[in-house]
Recover the amino acids of this structure.
């Protein structure tokens, strides 16, 4: 056994637990810190529930810390794993982002270098990470490609103004375009739902879509501001469009999950936790990793899949003997 | 017949899978506790950055100073505040913001479209146009940004109001209010009660630590002037770098901090919490100068050159990766089926 395959076989089974825990930590942070504590601060009489508020706030901060550690670990592990498996494109994109992020963290390069590297890395994902081949694989590439495009379009005004401050950029139009691309990407995720329409997944997706529609119609401003703060969408379009996007994402994620493909749910959750556009290095890392997983699902294999492959390997080894 | 070795293998793999979950979870929690305990800032903000350039001449408070047409500005997305009552759509989609500093004074210019100038609140149900800038009370960037503040994190707010700038009309133009002589202010109940809003400056210097905690600071040192035209409002606010007291950020060249904005459209019944607000973006106080011809001296060429070089290097690396991946794809054997069950 070579060193390369030894590292690979040791690391590979950790990818799935790291990915699932990363998603859990980032979603807890999203709900507890970005959503609950910031909403609760506006509630009159907060002092009466201050202990509860502070507990939720601490849970959110702890989840944020865990999310930081886990997303970095996930990117490192996925980059090494991709390198071991000769998925050089995925390894290169993740390594490039990690390198520039590390340099930015220690102050060796400016924040603008990280913003450019992040945007280039996200733009490169559909080109270099997604496997080529069948028509099905081509369809599966549509969603990550559109998500990546949405991120790039949303990030470009920020980068352009940093690089050439006097440049005139149609900012509002680009933000609207990014938002449209993100919603279409969510709808296109249906292509990742395997096989014929699944009843339970369709019901769950419809329920999520109806919930979003009802929220946006009954409390448009509340939902829109939370969308802007948390996932970078300002709510430019009709509520039906966001409802359709949500329904498709939930349908695809649940449908794939029930058939053992966890990558759609993990990838979509990371994309949501990261949000569209440049917010922070950690959110960008989550978005990048989410798009990578959507483009190249082999990055996270479940324990079951890993065990299956391991058994196949053992069977073939024993046959050879 | 059941293959017992296979069943054993699966049970072992399942147990190993669970063990790995617990190991990863434990390591992550220990690391997270360390991050929290030592207050490490592990993330780098990447949001929009408003740069306040050094000005070679005093831009002054005139909001119509042509220099504000030349200074690079940021369009900041706004959306309605509807978390705390009163609430509903603010109706202002964006605000254009630019910053300059001269002689250790920070100037911020804000422009937004509003067809009507609502600057006289002389009747019930009539509301004023206004704009506000919000900084963390202690200059810093926080990731995730604290947005509207948290219970343990105060914010400093500069609040310009069109009606305060206009001044409160003590006697309506149409004549007497009642039989009291106009020299007697007793019938102006707010003034008689000592409501500070009666004589509030055009820009109020406020501090808040959450809903219901908004209070005026003793030192009202924020200067500001607004002007309304065909394209809407233009408002300039200014304050010296060094604050007169606590709970107000200190500005300095090279400093970066969070900043957020809010706009009230009186014609749209906006008042109090009924407004359009932004998320926090970053504000950088830059020592580079901005001259009157509208270019940033000394830095643009080098920024562009560095960016082109950087994009080139990363681009070549990505193309190399693409070529390598294609070769790797071509060499790949067809995927093996994973056994089910």
């Amino acid at each position: 056994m070579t060193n390369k395959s030894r590292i690979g076989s040791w690391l590979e089974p950790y990818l799935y637990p790291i990915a699932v825990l990363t998603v859990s930590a980032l979603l807890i942070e999203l709900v507890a810190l970005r959503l609950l504590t910031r909403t609760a601060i506006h509630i009159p009489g907060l002092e009466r529930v201050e202990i509860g508020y502070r507990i939720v706030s601490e849970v959110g901060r702890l989840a944020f810390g865990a999310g930081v550690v886990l997303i970095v670990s996930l990117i490192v592990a996925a980059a090494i794993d991709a390198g071991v498996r000769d998925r050089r494109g995925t390894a290169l994109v993740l390594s490039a982002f990690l390198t520039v992020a590390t340099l930015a963290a220690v102050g060796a390069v400016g924040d603008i270098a990280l913003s450019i590297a992040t945007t280039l890395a996200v733009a490169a994902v559909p080109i270099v990470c997604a496997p080529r081949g069948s028509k099905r694989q081509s369809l599966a590439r549509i969603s990550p490609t559109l998500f990546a495009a949405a991120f790039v379009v949303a990030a470009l005004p920020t980068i352009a103004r940093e690089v050439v401050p006097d440049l005139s950029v149609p900012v509002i139009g680009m933000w609207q375009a990014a938002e449209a691309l993100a919603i279409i990407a969510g709808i296109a995720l249906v292509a990742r739902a395997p096989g014929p329409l699944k009843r339970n997944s369709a019901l769950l997706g419809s329920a999520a879509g109806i919930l979003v529609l009802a929220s946006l119609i009954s409390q448009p401003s509340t939902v829109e501001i939370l969308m802007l703060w948390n996932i970078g969408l300002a709510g430019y379009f009709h509520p039906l469009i966001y409802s359709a996007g949500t329904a498709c994402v939930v349908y695809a994620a649940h449908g794939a999950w029930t058939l053992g493909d966890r990558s759609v749910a993990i990838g979509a959750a990371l994309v949501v936790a990261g949000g569209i556009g440049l917010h922070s290095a950690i959110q960008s890392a989550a978005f990048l990793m989410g798009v990578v997983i959507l483009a190249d699902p082999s990055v996270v294999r479940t324990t079951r899949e890993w065990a299956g492959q391991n058994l196949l390997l053992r069977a073939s080894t024993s046959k050879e003997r | 017949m059941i293959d017992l070795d296979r069943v054993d293998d699966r049970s072992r793999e399942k147990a190993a899978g669970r063990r790995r979950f617990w190991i990863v979870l434990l390591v992550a929690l220990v690391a997270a506790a360390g991050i929290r305990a030592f207050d490490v800032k592990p993330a780098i903000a990447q949001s929009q950055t408003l740069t306040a350039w050094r000005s070679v001449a005093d831009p002054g408070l005139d909001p119509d100073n042509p220099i504000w047409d030349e200074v690079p500005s940021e369009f900041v997305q706004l959306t309605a505040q509807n978390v705390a009552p009163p609430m509903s759509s603010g109706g202002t989609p964006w605000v254009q913001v630019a910053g300059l500093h001269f002689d250790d004074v920070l100037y911020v210019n804000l422009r937004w479209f509003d067809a009507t100038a609502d600057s006289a609140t002389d009747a019930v149900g009539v509301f004023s146009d206004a704009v506000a800038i919000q900084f963390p009370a202690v200059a810093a960037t926080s990731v995730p940004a604290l947005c509207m503040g948290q219970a343990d994190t105060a914010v400093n707010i500069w609040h310009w109001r069109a009606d305060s700038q206009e001044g409160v009309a003590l006697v309506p133009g149409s004549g007497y209010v009642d039989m009291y002589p106009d020299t007697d202010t007793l019938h102006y109940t707010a003034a008689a009660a000592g409501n500070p809003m009666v004589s509030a400056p055009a820009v109020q210097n406020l501090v808040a630590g959450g809903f219901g905690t908004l209070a005026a600071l003793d030192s009202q040192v924020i200067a500001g002037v607004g002007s309304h035209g065909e394209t809407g409002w233009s408002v300039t606010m200014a304050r010296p770098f060094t604050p007169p007291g606590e709970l107000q950020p200190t500005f300095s060249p090279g400093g970066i901090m969070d900043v957020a904005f809010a706009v009230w459209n009186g014609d749209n019944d906006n008042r109090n919490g009924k407004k359009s607000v932004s998320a926090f973006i970053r504000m950088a106080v830059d020592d580079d100068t901005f001259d009157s011809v509208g270019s940033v001296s000394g830095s643009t060429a080098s920024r562009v050159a560095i960016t082109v070089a950087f994009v080139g290097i990363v681009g070549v690396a990505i193309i190399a990766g693409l070529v390598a991946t294609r070769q790797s794809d071509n060499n790949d054997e067809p995927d093996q089926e994973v056994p089910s069950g």
